[in-house]
Amino acid sequence: MVAPLDLLDVESLLSDTERDIREVVRRVADDRVRPDVAEWYEKGQTPVRDLALEFGKLGLLGMHLTGYGCAGASAVSYGLACMELEAADSGVRSLVSVQGSLAMYAIWKFGSEEQKQRWLPGMAAGELIGCFGLTEPDHGSDPANMSTRARRDGADWVLDGGKMWITNAPLADVAVIWARAEEGVVGFAVPTDTPGFSAREIKRKMSLRASSTGEITLEGVRLPESARLPEARGLKAPLSCLTEARFGIIWGSMGAARDCLRVAIDYATTREQFGRPIGGFQLTQAKLADMSLELQKGFLLALHLGRLRDSTGALRPEQVSIGKLNNVREAIAIARTCRTILGGNGISGEYPVMRHANNLESVLTYEGTSEIHQLVIGQKLTGLNAFA
């Protein structure tokens, strides 16, 4: 048997350093996450702080950033790390993505030197947890109309409002909060022990259960001017953070898809019906072939975008939208098809396939729904804005 990604010899497209980083992350996922993640998912409880410290020791938190204790790894290396983490569980990859590509990136990109020194080294080490507060109960895909307000009061700022579906919020030490002010959208690095700030755990989730998700309430949160991210000007700032996080999703979703396909192939070659393994039936082989095709195409797309980012320093939003739209859409299709191969066992927690499928329902929505990415691509193709 040949592993799906071996069909095109994609291994030859990676450098020795990239393969080494991937293997390190794969080992920690195998050793630290896989043995317990089914139980974490079932209970809706994950040792986030313990994982953050372990990931920090490996340099995984903010690994693609430079300075302040960050590893300064390449985009492809970061993508491979996301792929291995999400092959274990999307919620665990979300912990790393939100910490590094949203909270840390926002401070690294838009913060003052004082803010960077205060927060980034501890976040890179996993000693401090960060979250990113943009989405609101009534404003998910339309952040331009966010309800959270920031008003000046003397030398201070006062924040009022709420944020919803915020990964890491119940555990966070610092929250990057976006709000509307007279001068437009502004961002703040908010210590979560500030009076008026509260975060409650969102319960009864059916997806990303191995991830801590919260609702943030801001009631007269008073902050000094030094808490404002000085280089964040307008809505473009938080949207650029989303572009940063979407890159990890492009890779991570392929990890979940690969894990589902691995399990389905193993199952199909050992499960017998009608006197022979189900992998010997034409319909099953057709499913496996089609899924392998989409997995390889998705990996090559992710690798191309990673190489492009490493060579140019940045990706255009529509390029990231192409990657997120395609790879998550194909990953969830792969997970669902793998579930059919496992039959009734496909819904059992003894196998990871249904857990991946459920998690990918959230990944399909967050950091921009499929519809939003279609409109981003459509606007680029036509020059016409279909958002309004």
Descriptive overview:
- By secondary structure, the protein is an alpha+beta fold.
- The chain has 3 domains: 4-124, Butyryl-Coa Dehydrogenase, subunit A, domain 1 (Orthogonal Bundle); 130-227, Butyryl-CoA Dehydrogenase, subunit A, domain 2; 236-382, Butyryl-CoA Dehydrogenase, subunit A, domain 3 (Up-down Bundle).
- It contains 10 helices and 11 strands.
- It has helices at residues 16-43, 48-58, 75-88, 90-110, 113-124, 236-270, 282-312, 317-342, 353-365, 370-382; strands at residues 66-67, 70-71, 130-133, 149-153, 156-167, 174-181, 184-191, 197-201, 213-224, 272-273, 276-277.
- Strands 4-5-9-8 form a 4-stranded antiparallel β-sheet, with helices on one face. The protein has a 3-stranded mixed β-sheet with strand order 3-6-7.
- A hairpin with a 2-residue loop joins strand 4 (149-153) and strand 5.
- The chain is globular and about 80 Å long.
- The N and C termini lie far apart (51 Å).
- The model has no long low-confidence stretch (mean pLDDT 96).
In short:
It holds the Pfam family Acyl-CoA_dh_1. The protein has 388 residues and is α+β, with helices and mostly antiparallel strands. Helices cover 53% and strands 16% of the residues.
In the CATH hierarchy, what is the class of the largest domain?
Mainly Alpha
Over the alpha carbons, how many angstroms does the gyration radius reach?
21 Å
Tell me, what's the shape? globular
Count the DSSP helices.
Answer: 10
Question: Could you tell me how far the N terminus lies from the C terminus, measured between alpha carbons in angstroms?
Answer: 51 Å
Report the major sheet. Answer: 4 strands, antiparallel
Which structural class best describes the helix and strand composition? alpha+beta
Strand residues, percent: 15-25%
Order of helices and strands: HHEEHHHEEEEEEEHEEHHHH
CATH topology of the largest domain: Butyryl-CoA Dehydrogenase, subunit A, domain 3
Please state how the strands of the largest beta sheet are arranged side by side: 4-5-9-8
Mean pLDDT: 96
Please tell me the CATH architecture of the largest domain by its name: Up-down Bundle
Fourth CATH level, the homologous superfamily of the largest domain: Butyryl-CoA Dehydrogenase, subunit A, domain 3
| Beta strands, count | 11
Which regions are unreliable across 5 or more consecutive residues at pLDDT < 50? none
Number of domains: 3
Approximate helicity band: 40-55%
Protein name: Glutaryl-CoA dehydrogenase
Domain Acyl-CoA oxidase/dehydrogenase middle: 131-221
Domain Acyl-CoA dehydrogenase/oxidase C-terminal: 233-381
Domain Acyl-CoA dehydrogenase/oxidase N-terminal: 15-127
